[in-house]
Amino acid sequence: MICPNYPTPSFFVFTDQVPALLYYSHLPAMFISLLIGTLVFFKSEKSLLGRILLAMSITFFLWSFINLIAWTSNSTDIIAFIWPFFGTIYALLYIFSLYFAKVFVSGRDISFNMKFVLGVLFLPIVLLAPTRYNVQDFNLALCGVTNERSYYLNYFYGFGFFVAIWVLFILISGYRKSEGEMKKQILLFGFGIEAFLLSFFVAGYLASVWFENMYSIEFYGLLGMTFFMGVLTYLIVKFKAFNVKLLGVQALVFSLIILIGSQFAFIKNSINIVLNGITLTLIMIFGYFLVRSVKKEIEQKEQLATVNAELSQRKDELQMISDRLAQSNDKLRTLDNAKTEFISIASHQLRTPPTAIKGYASLIAEESFGPINEKQKEALKKISQANDQQINFVEDLLNVSRIESGRMEYSFKEWDIQDLCQNVVDNLYFKAKENKLYLDYKKSETEIPKVAIDGAKVLEVISNMVDNALKYTQRGGVTMRVSLCEKNTEGCIANEHVRIVVSDTGIGIPDTELPYLFAKFSRGKDISRLNTGGTGLGLYVGKIMIEANGGKIWAESDGKDKGSRFIIELPVTQTEENLRKVG
Question: 412 near 453, Cβ under 8 Å?
Fold first, then answer.
């Protein structure tokens, strides 16, 4: 080191005899490293990496500080005091660098064995630092060391070089084991820390060995720390390293302030000093607003991330609920299939007894087993009616079972609708007469073409509609009309079609019950009162059958005691092939 002999003792000397590069190399590196180390320490919530980086930054600051004193102070006592610390702090800086690199790559603390090896290698440097094995002679007149022991010097510099190579092996090993973005982080981190360690070693070693010729090269070694801190800042901004978010902008702003402020150390022109001061002031103002703006943006992003996390959690919860509902639906479907199968089996079993009862009741009524009186005939009539209700109920259950299990079969052919309706009227005419009701059939005045339908199914539905109308009509009667509707008739299905309307003068249907009339097991209050034997399945089965024939069915009523109308519409132009697909 050079220690100029100034006449006036002072701690720091700022004259033309001290190279301007000295301050520009020392001051920015010192304060930038300390600044970033401190920010990472607090912003990372005092994590292990944050603590190591802070220790590394403080160590570098101390080395740079005492080196700056040695270069600028004219106090021989101060120089004599600080000189033994150079080797110790130098080696300690490399130890912290190794520690930092290992934890950064592996994500965990170093082993006890590694700490023990570093401690053993570091111990001689500490013990020999204040002895003559480090400095043999110190000339107070020349304000400097005149005879440094080469083996001590070579040992702590060799220790630094050994640690730099060790760090390189750690980085290579970590790079091979890592994946994705971590590879990029290790590559950038390794480039930065090796640039610092090797430049610091080379510059220091050359300045110590070739003292007289290359003393100023030591200044350039400190610039490696500024470069390394720049790499760390980039890692923080790009990859959110150390779990720090705002540090990158803060470090950038403060680094610019330090770099611009350090120029005052060697600017001599007064105009340049003023311009540099203005630039520094503007950087401080704009930097303040930049940091505040970025901080606000980060807070907004964090809030958005929180909302997204909550939405993702809700989405997961909804997915779980959906999965549970799907499982429940599967179980319900299984139970429903089991129920349908049970109904099918039970209906077949229930069909046999009523058939036998109907046969024997008919034989008794015809006096095949001997004469009977009028009271007995009346009782047989009621038995026959109740038995017919039982047969209809079983048939409805069987139809529901076939429909829900997909076993309902359809046979589509061309049928004359008017003939079907006439058949229904003929079958139920005497029932209407017995109930003292009229049953009128009004055919279409225009010719109606044949329709491709399952005649047996449609006949069953029309018959059920007329039969229901007779059941729920106490006075008056039932009228059935058949007509041909043209295309695009308002309120009708598309294209040309046949309309069948069964109207009665019965109890009517309340508006509140109309939407549920064709639902399974649905029966109105007044309907239940007048016909206790109904099942609520006839209209449901009829709706399914008509829709399978390509048509539609619905009911209308003007209100209570104002009668009702049941309407069926069947397309004329449909083909048997299309109906088979529907059925």
Answer: yes
